[in-house]
Structure formats: C-alpha cells, structure tokens
Automatic annotation (TrEMBL):
InterPro entries: Class_I_gatase-like, GATASE, GMP_synth_C, GMP_synth_GATase, GMP_synthase, GMPS_ATP_PPase_dom, NAD/GMP_synthase, Rossmann-like_a/b/a_fold. Catalyzes the synthesis of GMP from XMP. This is GMP synthase [glutamine-hydrolyzing]. The lineage of its organism: Bacteria, Pseudomonadati, Pseudomonadota, Betaproteobacteria, Burkholderiales. Residues 204-396 form the GMPS ATP-PPase domain. It comes from Pelomonas caseinilytica. SUPFAM superfamilies: Adenine nucleotide alpha hydrolases-like (SSF52402), Class I glutamine amidotransferase-like (SSF52317), GMP synthetase C-terminal dimerisation domain (SSF54810). ATP binds at S231, G232, G233, V234, D235, S236, S237. Homodimer. The gene is guaA.
Length: 528
C-alpha cells in the first residue's frame, strides 16, 4: 500500500488544487500542505518529488513566503510554479525584481536548452525551428538573474527568464501555470515531471484503490459498528458503498428525509442502498418535524441554521438507538480538508453557513471514519462507478444539504415544495434528454448544476379562456469547474422553450417560468 508521493507546498494560489488534480490524473498520489510546514515534516513525508505552487499575491515583495530549506536538501526533483519559481530563485542565490508591468493571460513561450522537462513537448514550431508553448501567465515580478547551476529553459519577449532548470539536481521552475487548462501542454509537462523525471510509478488508480481502502477500513473498524448519514448526494453514497463493501452489516445508514428533497429522491436512495446493495438503511421521515420548525421563517441564514440543527437532532436520536455503534462515517472529501492558503491565518467572510454535521462525533462520543478524505471529487466519482453505483447517481449535480429549503425563497410550505419538486424534475429530465450536437453530450452533462427555484410571488396569466394567478419558478443552470465562480449556461432556446411549456402545462399552480442569467460572482449559485 506504499504509493509514491508528491508533496505540493501551497503558497496561497487560487489554483493549487488544480496542480494536485493534474498530478493525480497522471496516476500519482499527492498531497497539498501549507508552505510553512517544518523541515522535519518535509523529511518525514518522504516525497518522491516536490512542487512549489503560485501565490495569490501578485508581487513578490508583498511577502516573505519561503519553502522549508529541506525541500532543496532531500535530493528529490523540485518544480517551482510562478511564485514557486521566485522563492526557489531567491533561496538558491538568484535574483527577482519587481516589475511595473503585469503579465496576465495568454502567452507564447519559447523553449530553450533541451531540458528533459520540455523535451518533445510543444504546441508549434517557429520557422527558425524553435519549439513554442501556448501558456497562461499571471505574474508581476521577474527573475532577473539565475541561481548558480541553473540554465535558461524558457522565455517570452517580455519575460526573458520564463523557465529555468538545474538538471544535475533535477530542479525546474516555470513562470507560467502548467496546472490550468489554458496551458495546453500543462498536463504533459506535469506528467513528465512526476512520472519521468521523479520516476513515480503511476499506481494511483481507483479500480485498484478499492482493495486497499477496504483493507484499511476493516483494519480500522475491526468488529465494531459504524453509522453513516446517507443524504443521497455523491459523497455520502460512495462512502456508504465503500464501507458496505468492507464491513457489510456492521454498517447502518441513516437516511433523514427532511421533506426538502427532490422528486422521488427518498425512493431512489432506498431502492439503491436497501434494495440493490442490501445495506442496512434506517429511513427516517422527519418532514413534518422540519417543516413545522421552519414555518413562518423567511430569513435564509435562519432557515439554514434551523435545518442544520434539526438534522443533527434527528440523526442523534437515531444514532442513540444503535447502541453498538462506535464509529460515525462521513463522506468528507479532500477539498474539504485541504488546508490551503499558505499561511494558516487567511480569513474569509461567511457568505452562507454550510450545512454540516461537524459537531456530531463529539456529542455522540463516536470515532470518525472518513474513507474519502484523500480523494478529489472526480476520483470519488470514479470510485463510485468502480464500486458498481449507477453512473447516473455518481455523476449527479451537487445538491445542497438544506435542499429545497434554500430554493424556496422566504417562507417554506409543503405546497411550495411539492410544486417546486415537479417543476425541477421536468427541467432535469429535459436537460438529460437534450443532446448538444456539437459535443454529443446531454445538457445535463454540459452543465455543472441545474435546478428550479420557487418564487413566492404570483403573476397573472391566461390559459385557455381563463385567467390564472399563479406562482413563478426561475430556472438556474451554471457551468463551473470549482463552484467558486460560475457562468450561467447558454442553454439552447428550444430547450428553455420546451421546459417552460411543460412546466406551465403540467404543474398546475405555476404559470410563469424565467431563466436566471446571473453569474457568480456577484450572484451565488443557489438563490439563498
Ligand atoms: P453558492 O450558492 O454558495 O453554492 O454559490 C456553491 C455550491 O455549494 C452548494 N451549497 C451547499 N452545499 N450545504 C451543501 O452541502 C449547503 O448548505 C450548501 N449551500 C450551497 C451549492 O449547491 C453549490 O453547489
């Protein structure tokens, strides 16, 4: 079970997680840690290679972030990216200068010096036979003098040292960002670094990972019992399937229906887990309790808090009945645990309080089992498929913990939830059934998240010969890679037309459909 490991030190770039994802795509295990870890940590991690990330700060002089000295003393290959190149330069005796001019966006970089990192990797050749790369740059400062032992590896007209290498020590650095898809050969470059230069085996694959994860869970849990809160979402479902594979009936899933789920969701979850997998699932229909507590509450944050607290209460009551349970399993995934931002003090404003059950294990006196802690979302999905979960379930759009509670604006009523469920199901069905001829994919697959939102206002309409005075729904569909920013999806008019017509004709009580054309930021994906 010993995988070769790559250590990624994070200096606070927005895109550090992308470095990790590219490395994992090259079938190599890696972890992200803050740049200020100790020398001892770096040594005991025993990486086969180290990557130094970029930083959020655009200028080098803003801060004094450095890599631990051990990075350069371990004898393993090191790759510096953007800010990582600056810190490497300064720590190894070269020079960086602040520059007035910020380079941001597309650039064409010329490769120099036939390094192993760039050998055979290029997008095109100039008439003079220079290998060229199309890349994404984002930096203010520049390396003005190479550290001793380094040679020039890449340049652009405005950035004469855009890449450098000391091949005797296997130290490389690039000014551009190979982790973003705009750098066309970025994936090839990172793969070259971790697989060929560092010699990592490429043994990180979900199919073979199952045996390993199963063995680990068995060892951890022994003969004790585990409970898991099943939400129907991808993460908890994959965690449940994996743990069930490992320990069968020692696992009990608790599925809390808060009355704010999508159409037929409870049925689907029960069919899959109790029906097909023969897992032990306790189905708690707590919808009346939740809707009772929410009656008359209109403030989004209060609604979120009530749903979160109520969930904990219901779950706790169920858990207490399972007197043998010693473990609480959760579908925590790597992006939830990774400590990014370089320094540990970075603060963020709370835009929305996310529904979580973080306090549960302590109050219940349970140990925490988180078998997906080291996986990215795409890996969780691949694992789900490898475990035999239906791809439709595994590739579902995310659904927020508070469910329709944040998609019914203001006061939540059962009547509203029922209307919204039906409108939403029509929208999703049409997205799944409409294939985009250009890509051959369904619009469900081409969007990252799509749903309907219930607006508790009435508008006048006409149906047949009669006047209607009914509610409005808004359709929301976005495209995003990280859910931090998102664009509204340019759905075909014909699709919108069909969805609108079906909702108005089939869902009595809704007579108007609108489409949300707001991007995030400044809007958020959910409406509350
Ligand atoms: P926003 O609305 O903040 O949403 O742009 C970003 C992503 O997070 C999801 N979301 C939640 N997920 N519990 C969750 O598990 C929550 O309380 C919650 N609120 C928002 C949202 O659906 C989108 O994918």
């Amino acid at each position: 079970m010993q995988h070769d490991k790559v250590l990624i030190l994070d200096f606070g770039s927005q895109v550090t997680q992308l470095i990790a994802r590219r490395v994992r795509e090259a079938a190599v295990y890696c972890e992200i840690h803050p740049n200020d870890v100790s020398d001892d940590f770096v040594r005991s991690f025993a990486p086969k290679a180290i990557i130094l990330s970029g930083s959020h700060a655009s200028t080098y002089e803003d801060h004094e972030l450095r890599a631990p000295q051990a990075v350069y003393e371990l004898g393993v290959p090191v790759l510096g990216i953007c800010y990582g190149m600056f810190t490497m330069t300064v720590q190894l005796g070269g020079q960086v200068e602040a520059s007035e001019h910020r380079e941001f966006g597309y650039a064409e970089v010329r490769a120099h010096g036939h390094t192993q990192l760039l050998d055979g990797i290029q997008d095109f050749e100039t008439p003079e036979k220079h290998g060229m790369l199309k890349v994404w740059m984002s930096h203010g400062d520049k390396v003005t003098s190479l550290p001793p032992g380094f040679k020039l590896m890449a340049s652009t007209p405005s950035c004469p040292i855009a890449g450098m290498a000391d091949e005797s020590r296997r130290f490389y650095a690039v000014q551009f960002h190979p982790e973003v898809t705009h750098t066309l050969q970025g994936e090839a470059l990172l793969r070259r670094f971790v697989r060929d230069i560092a010699g990592c085996k490429g043994d990180w694959q979900m199919g073979s990972y199952i045996d390993e994860a199963v063995a680990r869970i068995r060892e951890q849990v022994g003969s004790e019992e585990v409970i898991l809160g099943l939400s129907g979402g991808v993460d908890s479902s994959v965690a449940a399937a994996l743990i069930h594979r490992a320990i069968g009936d020692q696992l009990t899933c608790v599925f809390v229906d808060h009355g704010l789920l999508r159409l037929n969701e409870a049925q689907m979850v029960m069919d899959m887990f109790a029906g097909r997998l023969h897992a032990r699932v306790v189905h708690v229909d707590a919808s009346e309790q939740f809707l009772g507590k929410l009656a008359g509450v209109t403030d989004p944050e209060r609604k979120r808090k009530i749903i979160g607290a109520e969930f904990v209460e219901v779950f706790q009551a169920e858990a207490k009945k399972l007197t043998n349970a010693k473990w609480l399993a959760q579908g925590t995934i790597y992006p939830d645990v990774v400590e990014s931002g370089g320094t540990k003090t970075k603060k963020a404003t709370t835009i929305k309080s996310h529904h979580n059950v973080g306090g549960l294990p302590e109050t219940l006196g349970l140990k925490l089992l988180e078998p997906l802690r080291e996986l990215f979302k795409d890996e969780v999905r691949a694992l789900g498929v490898a475990l035999g979960l239906p791809p439709d379930m595994v590739y579902r759009h995310p659904f927020p913990g508070p469910g329709l509670g944040v998609r019914i604006l203001g006061d939540i009523r059962k009547e509203y939830a029922d209307l919204l469920r039906r409108a939403d199901a029509i929208f999703i069905e049409e997205l799944r059934n409409t294939i985009d001829p250009a890509t051959g994919k369904s619009w469900y697959g081409l969007t990252s998240q799509a749903f309907a939102v219930f607006l508790p206002v009435k508008s006048v309409g006409v149906m047949g010969d009669g006047r209607t005075y009914d509610y409005v729904v808004a359709l929301r569909a976005v495209q995003t890679s990280d859910f931090m920013t998102a664009d509204w999806a340019e759905l075909p008019y014909a699709l919108l037309k069909k969805v609108s017509s079906r909702i108005i004709n089939e869902v009595r009580g809704i007579n108007r459909v609108t489409y949300d054309v707001s991007s995030k930021p400044p809007a958020t994906i959910e409406w509350e």
